[in-house]
Amino acid sequence: MIIITPERIRALSNISRWYGWVRRPFSVLDHTLVGFYACQSAMTSKEQARAWLLHDMHETHIMGDVSTPDKNRYLTLDYDAEVREFDEMLCDEAGLGVDWRDGAHIKRIDRVMLLAEHETIVTKAVIPESEMKLPPDDIQLLVEAQHMIQIHSGCDMDPVKRWSMAWQECV
Long-range contacts of range 49-53, CB-CB < 8 Å, 24 or more positions apart? Predict the structure, then answer.
């Protein structure tokens, strides 16, 4: 089965972040691309950049975008197993190491993006203030991501082309 297809990338552009509780449309693909460009300085290899571009691809196959707190609260080990199985196939197709999903850089950038999105476009506060802290080294990444989210008003360029351009930068 071929996983990385134009249809799947387009599907990412149709899945809303934050269950739709945003000031304007903001998709999983937007999250991925803003994170890619805003946090490039945190990625130390092309493999890390490719891993970031693929990290939410399973959301087109299993159940859409689910926030990490809700995953931890409501989803079972069956969900984790199915995500892992999908990601292993994706890993083989993309030529990534087997532990690519568990990389600290993915968690770091996802955390920066979660906070940047929450502070700029989310209309329903879901993160307690106590969880809004970042290490000092990530503050500049947060500022860059917030800026990119604010100026990003939905690109007119085809979503498949936008993702493909980012992918070409890291192959």
Answer: 49/169, 49/170, 50/94, 50/96, 50/167, 50/170, 50/171, 51/96, 51/100, 51/101, 51/103, 51/105, 51/106, 52/105, 52/106, 52/109, 53/163, 53/166, 53/167, 53/170
Tokens of 75: 């989803």
DSSP type of residue 122: B
Question: What pLDDT shows up at residue 11?
Answer: 96
Residue 162 near residue 132, CB atoms below 8 Å: no
Q: pLDDT tier at 21 (50, 70, 90 boundaries)?
A: very high
Neighbours of 150 (CB within 10 A): 11
Give this prediction's pTM.
0.90
